[in-house]
């Protein structure tokens, strides 16, 4: 080979990229394997997340489907501060039956116009509803209606207060009062548990249980809804002077 040809080949070899070293080849194979493993792991995680999300959505739909629709809409909420109100409970009212009756008479506006009975014209379309009561719809006609639980609860509490005072006044307990009171005690127990008021009360100058805010159903909105669907109104001239719920 001529010197010029030899020099040319050596110069060309100097610019060629050297072949990969054996260790580099091993690293390349390991890197490829690692990338594949990462892809598979990511795919598995994505599939697992999709399954979890799917199960969550399915459970949410199932829970919603289990809640039977009610004709009563979801009423707005309002914050109330619990405080003693002498209009509804007087500290000395239990010493005298007339004071008790007079105080309980002021509870009447807390109940709906029809004493809590509301008409649901399409009641047959709601699986959640039992058979309605038959009550006066007007002065000449009876018809189907339902009692809203909140007004039943107010009646029970009013009834217990009235007969609690009578018991201290020495009135003999009758079978009707005993059975009715027992019903009201258990009805109120279950009502309190059902409402499950989870607002947190703390120590205040107003006394135990007082002075704390509670998020509640807007009671004015509740009364308006009930009164728009009420059966025959019972607040009229026929009421005795000291009527109670």
TrEMBL record:
<comment type="similarity">
    <text>Belongs to the ustYa family.</text>
</comment>
<dbReference type="GO" id="GO:0016491">
    <property type="term" value="F:oxidoreductase activity"/>
</dbReference>
<keyword id="KW-0472">Membrane</keyword>
<keyword id="KW-0812">Transmembrane</keyword>
<feature type="transmembrane region" description="Helical">
    <location>
        <begin position="40"/>
        <end position="58"/>
    </location>
</feature>
<dbReference type="InterPro" id="IPR021765">
    <property type="entry name" value="UstYa-like"/>
</dbReference>
<dbReference type="GO" id="GO:0043386">
    <property type="term" value="P:mycotoxin biosynthetic process"/>
</dbReference>
<protein>
    <submittedName>
        <fullName>Uu.00g114250.m01.CDS01</fullName>
    </submittedName>
</protein>
<feature type="region of interest" description="Disordered">
    <location>
        <begin position="1"/>
        <end position="30"/>
    </location>
</feature>
<keyword id="KW-1133">Transmembrane helix</keyword>
<keyword id="KW-0560">Oxidoreductase</keyword>
<dbReference type="Pfam" id="PF11807">
    <property type="entry name" value="UstYa"/>
</dbReference>
<comment type="pathway">
    <text>Mycotoxin biosynthesis.</text>
</comment>
């Amino acid at each position: 080979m001529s010197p010029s040809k030899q020099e040319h080949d050596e110069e060309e070899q100097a610019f060629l990229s050297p072949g990969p070293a054996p260790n580099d080849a091993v690293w390349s194979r390991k890197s490829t394997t690692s990338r594949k493993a990462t892809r598979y792991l990511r795919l598995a995680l994505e599939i697992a997340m999709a399954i979890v999300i799917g199960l969550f959505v399915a459970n949410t739909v199932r829970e919603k489907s289990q809640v039977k629709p009610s004709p009563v809409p979801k009423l707005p909420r309002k914050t109330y501060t619990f405080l003693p109100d002498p209009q509804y409970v007087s500290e000395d009212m239990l010493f005298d039956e007339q004071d008790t009756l007079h105080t309980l008479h002021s509870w009447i506006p807390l109940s709906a116009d029809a004493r809590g009975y509301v008409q649901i014209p399409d009641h047959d379309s709601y699986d959640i509803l039992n058979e309605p009561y038959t009550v006066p719809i007007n002065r000449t006609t009876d018809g189907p209606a339902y009692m809203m639980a909140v007004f039943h609860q107010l009646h029970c509490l009013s009834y217990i207060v009235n007969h609690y005072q009578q018991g201290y006044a020495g009135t003999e307990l009758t079978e009707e009062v005993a059975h009715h009171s027992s019903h009201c005690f258990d009805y109120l127990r279950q009502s309190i548990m059902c409402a499950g008021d989870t607002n947190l009360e703390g120590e205040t100058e107003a006394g135990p249980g007082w002075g704390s805010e509670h998020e509640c159903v807007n009671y004015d909105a509740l009364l308006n809804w009930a009164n728009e669907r009420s059966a025959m109104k019972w607040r009229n001239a026929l009421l005795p002077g000291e009527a109670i719920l």
